[in-house]
Amino acid sequence: MNLGFDTIGNAIIVAYDKKPVLVTDPWIEGDAYFGSWTLSHEIPIEQLEAIKAAEYIWISHGHPDHLSVASLNLLKGSTILMANHVGGRIASDLRRLGFKVLVLQDRVWTNLSERINIVTVPDYNQDSLLMIDVGGKLLVNLNDMTAKGWGPFVQKTIRQYKTSFLLQGFGYGDVDMINFVDEDGHRIDPPNATGDPVGRHIARVAETYGVSNVIPFSSLHKYQRSDSVWAREYATALGDYADGFQSQRCTLLPAYTRYDCLTDIPQEISPAETPDTVVDSTEFGDDWGEPLETKDITKIRDYFCAIEKLQSVMDFVTLKVGGEEHVVELKNKGFKKGIVFEVPRHSLMRAIRYEIFDDLLIGNFMRTRLIGDWPRSGLYPDFTPFVGKYADNGRAKTRDEVERYFHEYRRRAPLDYLRHRIQTNTAQAIKTRIDADSDVYRTAQRFWWFLRRHIGA
């Protein structure tokens, strides 16, 4: 291709300027989340060869469907580009593995070729967006992000382009942790299981940002582990994205698209679907009957107790492994509020050792039971971000470290940060106090989207 781009895989963009110049989040080899995820569709030979030939690789964040070390090992001749995440863990780890890594300055355009330029913005969730100018056409790659202060910057940039594309993860919610159970061990239906058609949400988000085109992205996987295939019921199929999509402002393009930026002609790529195989958890080292060892219990206790925030919002964390329960006491008394994680030893200890607890949650084979008074949002905002985002990837575990962590993001974009905190606190108050099935909640939701479109995402 002379000038244009392909979308393929899970969250892959291949941008061309006479040759492959840039590839984003190349997951082309292996599985993800301790074997739970595999790609939903094969990557055609043409795109696979282009990925391997690209001069630059963009890595948005540390989740294994975006940062696949097995895939990067096939691409060692390329330069890895990434945002300036506070803590710098990903860049440091990749350099230690022998990769060439270039950390980009926030909100500053970088030239990659004669007709391709990029700009990036990280946020405090240890994720980052990428905007790509391909010959005067704008690609807005939000992977699986939601706006955290940077929305107005993105909207302002989009308004400068006649032709723009939003690439973002959409679906029924299985890209996040949905494996909650009640006290009897019965699974609780995910909140989005019976929600609006996916296409309706896609149109709402695309119109909020003001793009002329939208491409489903970053949610193109399937479950394969014997203990997580139950989640296939809540996965999003390619045909689901168009369900309910109606817009006078933008066009929905297929998830796998080749776009020629000289002729403005899109062409659907039709890769073969991968087989619906079921792989036993033991193939990934997980025997659900294997108990913890004494040294494991010490490591687990040290891991959770080091994250000081947990002590102020809950009383205990219980790990049920091999049929035995092990309690990590976060307070000396009370024990009214806590979490029970039922999980196989091998993956648990890998998550503890490498500090990637988020991967256990998203893998959806670990069963989670909430004890006591938790919000409808479950592990948000008091557990998941403080453990998986700020502590594991941001290296912020103590109260002082977390305060410095947020201070740095606030320093970089103070107005955006303040606006976002106000929006977040308002949204959290509505979710906590108003029934999600009520007319009042639906009215508030419509007003919320109106404000985001006209005041800032």
Characterization of the model:
The chain has 457 residues and is α/β, with parallel strands linked by helices. It has three domains: 262 residues, 4-Layer Sandwich (Metallo-beta-lactamase, Chain A); 120 residues, Nonspecific Lipid-transfer Protein, Chain A; 42 residues. The strands form four sheets. It has an eight-stranded mixed beta sheet, with helices on one face. It has a seven-stranded mixed beta sheet with strand order 8-9-10-11-12-13-15, covered by helices on one side. Strands 19-18-20-21 form a four-stranded mixed beta sheet, covered by helices on one side. The longest helix has 20 residues. The protein is globular and about 65 Å long. 44% of the residues are buried.
SSE layout and pairing:
Elements: E1 3-8, E2 12-17, E3 20-24, E4 37-39, H1 45-53, E5 56-58, H2 69-72, E6 79-82, H3 89-96, E7 101-103, E8 110-111, E9 116-123, E10 127-134, E11 137-143, H4 151-158, E12 164-168, H5 198-209, E13 213-216, E14 221-223, E15 251-252, E16 257-260, E17 265-268, H6 294-305, H7 309-313, E18 316-321, E19 324-329, E20 338-342, H8 345-354, H9 357-363, E21 367-371, H10 384-393, H11 399-412, H12 414-433, H13 439-454
Parallel strand pairs: 3-5, 5-6, 6-7, 11-12, 12-13, 13-15, 18-20
Antiparallel strand pairs: 1-2, 1-16, 2-3, 4-14, 8-9, 9-10, 10-11, 16-17, 18-19, 20-21
Q: Please report the distance between the alpha carbons of the first and last residues.
A: 34 Å
Tell me the count of domains: 3
Q: Note the overall shape.
A: globular
Can you say what the CATH homologous superfamily of the largest domain is?
Ribonuclease Z/Hydroxyacylglutathione hydrolase-like
Number of helices: 13
Give a short account of the largest sheet.
8 strands, mixed
Would you count the extended β strands for me? 21
Helix content: 25-40%
CATH topology of the largest domain, by name, is Metallo-beta-lactamase, Chain A
Mean pLDDT, nearest integer?
Answer: 93
Strand residues, percent: 15-25%
The largest sheet has its strands arranged as: 7-6-5-3-2-1-16-17
Question: Under the CATH scheme, which architecture of the largest domain would be assigned?
Answer: 4-Layer Sandwich
Under the CATH scheme, which class of the largest domain? Alpha Beta
Structural class: alpha/beta
Computed CA radius of gyration, to the nearest angstrom: 22 Å
Unreliable runs: none
